[in-house]
Amino acid sequence: MRIFSFIVGLFLISILNIDVFAQEDRSDCEQSITLANDEFNAGRFYGVPAILKPCIDRGFSREQKQRAYTLLTQIYLLQDDPIAAGNAYLEVLRANPEFEADTAIHPIDVVYLSKKYTADPVFSIFGRAGGNTSPVSVIQTVSPSGLPVDNNYGLRVGFQLGGGFDFNINRSVAISTEIEFGFTSYKKSQTRFGDDILNVTANQSWATIPLYVRYTFSHGKLRPFGYAGFAVQFLNSEKANFISQKRDLSEQFPLILPETETTNRSLMDFRNSLNRSMVIGGGVRYKYGLDFLFVDVRYYAGLSNIVVPTSSADYTGVLVELGHADDMFRINNLSISIGYLHPFYKPRELKKARTKSILRGLNKSSK
C-alpha cells in the first residue's frame, strides 16, 4: 500500500512539475517575442530570427507561434525574401488556420501576401447523435371491412446516430453527405366495426443517405448554418405490437371483452424497402479549438408511400389474422442531434491570389 501511495504521489508531482516548466517556457517565450518586437521597431531586423529560434525549436503556444511568425513574415518581406516570407506565413496558418491579415492592424505587404495563401479545409468529417419523432402523413385511408373507420396516428420518440463529410467549395458553402442509422416509432389507434378498438405500435429501423448543400456563416465563435437536399432511405425492419378489443357500447346490450395482444409481428412483407425524402435543416456550430461542436435540427419530408399498394387491397397474411389493414401513408421525421466536426485544414499557396478584396477595402477607406 505504501509503495502504491509513493508511486501515485510521484506521478502527481511529475505532472505538477511539467505544468510549472511549461508555464516557465511560455513566460520565457513571451519575453522573447517582446524583445523581438523591440528589435524590429528599432530597425534591427537581422537579429530577430536568432532571438525567436530557441522558442521555435522548443515550442510556442499556438497564439505565440502566430505572433512570432507574423513578425518574421514582415521582416522577410522587408528583406526582399518572398520565399522565406511565404514559408513563415504558412507557419502562421498552421498555428491558426483561420488567421486573416487585416489592413487596420498589419502592413499592406503582409495583407497582400496573405491573399496568396489559405488553410481552408477541403474536407471535414463529423459525427452526431440525438432523438427524433416521426409524424405520419396519410395518403389514403383503408378500411378492413369497407365500413367507415376512425384512425388516429400519434407520435413516439426514437433516436439516430450518423456520420459523414463535407466537401468545402469555400469557407461558407459545402456539399455534404452522410450515412445515418435511425430508429423510429409511431402509433395508430383505430376504431372500427362500430366500437371495436385496435391499437398498433410500430418500431422501424432505417439507413438513410442524405445529400445536401450547406451554407455556414464563417466567422465568430457561434456559426449558424442551414441546408437543404435529398435523401434515399432504406427501411431495414418494421415490427409492430397489436392490441385489439371487441366492444359493443349500445345501451341495450353493452359488451366489452378482454384485450388481445399480439407482439413483434413483422410488417416487412407489406412495406417498400426503398424510399425517398426531401431534407431541410439547420443549427449552430461552436468553435472549440480548431474543431466544432454543433447542434443540428433536421426534417425529412417523406416522398414515398412506404406501404406496398397490394398489401392493403388484398388484405393478406398477418393483416387478415388481426383484422387490420394499413392505410397508404408516408413517414416524415423530425430530429435534433448534437455532434462534433473536425476540419482537415491544409495550409497551402493558392494558384491565383485573391487581392480584389484588398482594393475594395482600400477604396472604402479612402472614401
What does this structure look like?
The chain has 367 residues and is of the alpha+beta class. The protein has two domains: 2-119, no CATH class; 123-343, Porin, CATH 2.40.160. Helix content is 30%, strand content 43%. It is built from eight helices and 16 strands. The strands form four sheets. Strands 2-5-6-7-8-12-13-15 form an eight-stranded antiparallel beta barrel. Strands 1-16 form a two-stranded antiparallel sheet. Strands 3-14 form a two-stranded antiparallel sheet. Strand 5 and strand 6 (173-192) form a beta hairpin. Helix 1 (2-41) runs parallel beside helix 3 (62-78). The radius of gyration is 32 Å and the shape is rod-shaped. The chain starts with a helix and ends with a helix. Residues 14-24 have low confidence and may be disordered.
What characteristics describe this protein?
367 residues, alpha+beta, Porin, 2 domains, eight-stranded antiparallel barrel, 16 strands, 30% helix, rod-shaped
CATH class of the largest domain: Mainly Beta
What's the N-to-C terminus distance?
A: 77 Å
Low-confidence stretches: 14-24
Query: Beta-strand level of the residues, as a percent range?
Result: 35-45%
Strand order of the largest sheet: 2-5-6-7-8-12-13-15
Secondary-structure element string: HHHHHEEEEEEEEEEEEEHHEEEH
